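Can you make up a polypeptide sequence alongside its tokenized fold?
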Amino acid sequence: MGQPVAPAREPGGLAGHLDGFVRAVREAGIPVGISQAVDAAEILTVVDLLDREQLRHGLAAVLLQRAAQRDAYDVLFDLWWPLGDRPAPDPADGEAGETGQPTLDVPDDAALAELMRAQLLELLADGDPEALRRFARDAVDLLGQGQPTPSRQSYFSYRVMRALSPDTLVAQLLAGLLGGGERGGLAEQVARQTVRDRLAAFRTAVEAEVRRRTAAEKGRDRVAKNAVRPLADQVDFLRAQSADLAELRRSVAPLARRLAVRLSARRRMGREGRLDFRKTVRASLGTGGVPVVTHHRPRKVHKPELVVLCDVSGSVAGFSHFTLMLTQALREHFTGVRAFAFVDSTDEVTRFFTPGVDVADAIARMGREAQVVGFDGHSDYGTALEVFADRWASAVGPKTSLLVLGDGRTNYRQPGVPVLAGLVGKARSAHWLNPEPRRLWGSGDSAAERYGEVIDMVECRNAAQLADFVTTL
């Protein structure tokens, strides 16, 4: 049997506790509908409530839709369904602790840390996850305490990790796992991955224990707001880190497919093609020459054309990285995708995004070879739009969808609104995706509100907002 969970203390008992957990999951950005909440309540009747891991996986099966949601879910689960509370172990006790180890009666903090470090090495070598979690609780008790205040005692995970320095145990762990065998090859790769996984599990256990103790004093709701990392589709493009961009790459392809469908040209003749006169007359012979049933030629479905005009200046680096990934994915769904990048000049960058190329390599090559800087490297929308209109006037036509990507900050230079209006007038459809919050449009050097008078300006700070734009387009 797994680790037991602490009993629910909310009014309403277990049902009220589950309701609070579901609301926390929903507030973290994970969509949970009524039917899923009902299924979660049903899970409580079929799993062993004393088996914490069984409960964790059971609720995850009905509440989550994507693997990317699991990290946020696990943090919330550990807050709402913690391990059973127990008194903190006293190193001066004469009794053995919960881990079954002898009493840690040592003269000073340095010797205590060294003794626990040796114990951690044994536990990491054994790989028992339950024993590692119990040790993490003891480590937070003994090593994670900060300076106490009159009202409470604070705990910090960094104090535990600094005292134990688990990353310095890698060499000893590798030697133990390899058993004196030769280094290199598949065996060492597997051993290194095992070590990384066990160290990550220990860090996670320490962080979970610190959150549990903090939640007991400050309240779960308050801790949850700070502890849960935003999902990848909710991370602002302008603040995205490399790990976020890796997750965003996986969401680009379905968004590109949906965007291609939404932007595809509407046919004036509806769902069917032109009338097939010969087949219609031939069919009417059976009804006395009356064309009761008409026949139409199959409608030829053509991929739409798309022109992407993207700001790649440093102020929107995260956003431009994502939009260029989107451009790469859109090439699979449009008959003609032409991509243009600009800072204070414009250059066509379609050549860098050939099918199958790695987006990171394409962006690096674009930075070296594309002529997007003409003067000082600061955004100049007016000049960039003029260069585009002069050199590639034929790129935008009545069958073209124009997509502009940028924050609209001109560094107080001419915005080139008439040039943009001319391009919009020639295009079949035109949209501008802006990564800045709407409340900032028009502030400082932002010309977003002026651009919004001639083009559909859409706030697009994260992948979730892009999905909403695609859905409502």
About this structure: The chain is about 50% helix and 5% strand. Residues 13-80 form one domain. Residues 85-107, 265-270 have pLDDT under 50 and may be disordered.
